[in-house]
Amino acid sequence: MGWENQTFNFDFILLGIFNHSSSHIFLFSLVLGIFAFAIMGNTVMILLIYLDNQLHTPMYFLLSQLSLMDLMLICTTVPKMAFNYLSGRKCISLAGCGAQIFLYVSLLGAECFLLAVMAYDRYVAICHPLRYSILMNQKICHLMVLSSWIVGSLDGIIVVAVALSFPYCGAREIPHFFCDVPAVLTLSCTNTLLFERLMFICCVIMLLFPVTVIIASYLQVIVAVIQMGSGEGRQRAFATCSSHLMVVGMYYGAAMFIYMRPVSDRSPTQDKMVSAFYTILTPMLNPLIYSLRNKEVARGLMKVLGRGSLQSKLPN
Hints:
- The protein has helices at residues 22-51, 58-87, 94-127, 132-135, 138-163, 181-185, 193-226, 231-259, 268-292, 295-313, and strands at residues 11-14, 91-93, 173-174.
- It is mostly helical.
- Strands 2-1-3 form a three-stranded mixed β-sheet.
- Helix 1 packs parallel to helix 9, helix 3 packs antiparallel against helix 5 and helix 3 (94-127) packs antiparallel against helix 8 (231-259).
């Protein structure tokens, strides 16, 4: 069946992740709580880094971009899932499905490269502190962040263009809570093996290349930290780097599990669980990890809150 026998007006059916049993109602409420906390946490991080001049450094600028990506990522999947669950309607239009694919693929790709940039930033700060202001000046930092957004967007454009070029037929029921590409491709009327292989190669580039940069950077960082004479400096470096490595481990582990396994080994239930982890849980954990393990962020938050309470006490 070709596109001549189809229309762009048809809807897909998102089977979702929850039913209306009492246990699933509790889990759905928990997801809404996580969503609210992720929105609040990432928004606070972005505003705090913007408002506090002491946080106007490359490391915190990169962290604000990570929070922005996480904020957009969780808003790409959860609101539609919640609307479908509460309304009882499970449909999503072709255009809506394409928008979801573009946004989450772009954001995942951009975040992959941003985490590599953050690792490089820590490498320069710890291994070449005297040259940090040159190697990570404002222009270079903004250029690397812009490159991450551009590479991610190009990946999203290519994936959505190819994925929606296939003819889809049958019940069009997607065994997922959002339009994940592997789940959508199972509904195609034609053989998608070539595209799946190309997507695997793309994932190797988008995931393994940044991971290589991260591993190389942190090997140098570990050597430099071990050689530090100051115990306080060593502790501070380990605290900053361990926070980043926790985020990297959660993010890349889940992404590789989803996109770098053979199609024959896929399980819809496993895919939904792991997808929920990196699209819902990770955006909530990131600001929590960085704020609790970072004294500068906590100090900046106290300063901004203190300034706000002081201004509220002043007479008009």
